[in-house]
Design a protein that fits this description.
single chain, mainly alpha, 9 helices, about 0% strand, globular
């Protein structure tokens, strides 16, 4: 299930967009807000304690900050697709290689903590679904060929399980568990906080979004 859930989450999201053809990405903002809160809470409840137990606190801090910087760098190429924004030219028919590579690196890193933290798979899955839906809307509404869009989505769906496989089967992943996980924490912190900040449009009070954010935190705590 560790390998299967992220793949199914992305592929089913693509199939949903292909069949239902939703046009308005705004409808997924509540799900996005929930996913940001849920992922942030799981990161704090699950990942932070484990890395601080196994490594020097200053070393952990350095790698968390490196993870934040890495994600900022990746977003120069993905244009924010990791948190629900795709600012690319939909008129172009070329395969979006930079978007694919940046999202693949992000997804590959996501897979590392799953090996030692079973519950984090749910945070990653709930994070992936709205992102995959929004990404699929862009791909299917653009001039990119359907075969290329499907190729993109299938490869993208395999990246997180690939990260989990490397973490489970390569010695360096075990030896450097704390710094790698701290790097992923930095990536998660950046992604989840950006999602939460962006979900409060113009800093206006929105009761529905507040409720789903609290719900995401509570469910993560219970898990």
């Amino acid at each position: 299930m560790t390998y299967l859930l992220p793949i199914l989450g992305v592929l089913i999201s693509f199939a949903f967009v292909f069949l239902v053809k939703p046009q308005n990405k705004e409808n997924f903002k509540l799900l996005l807000a929930f996913s940001g809160a849920f992922l942030l809470a799981l990161t704090i409840f699950e990942l932070f304690p484990s890395v601080y137990e196994k490594s020097n606190s200053k070393t952990v801090g350095v790698f968390v900050l490196l993870g934040i910087l890495l994600q900022i760098f990746l977003e120069f190429f993905s244009k924010g697709a990791e948190h629900g924004h795709v600012h690319l030219d939909s008129e172009k028919s070329d395969f979006p290689w930079l978007l694919f590579l940046s999202l693949s690196i992000h997804s590959f890193l996501e897979g590392f903590p799953i090996e030692n933290h079973d519950t984090i798979i749910y945070g990653i899955l709930i994070h992936k679904i709205p992102i995959a839906i929004i990404l699929s809307i862009f791909l299917l509404n653009s001039k990119i060929k359907l075969a290329h869009a499907l190729f993109f989505i299938v490869l993208f769906s395999l990246m997180t399980p690939l990260g989990s496989y490397v973490a489970a089967n390569f010695e360096f992943a075990t030896n450097y568990y704390a710094p790698i996980t701290a790097l992923v924490i930095g990536v998660f912190l950046h992604i989840s906080t950006v999602i939460l900040f962006e979900s409060s449009e113009g800093h206006k009070f929105n009761l529905r979004k507040l409720i789903v954010i609290i719900l995401g935190i509570v469910i993560a705590y219970v898990l």
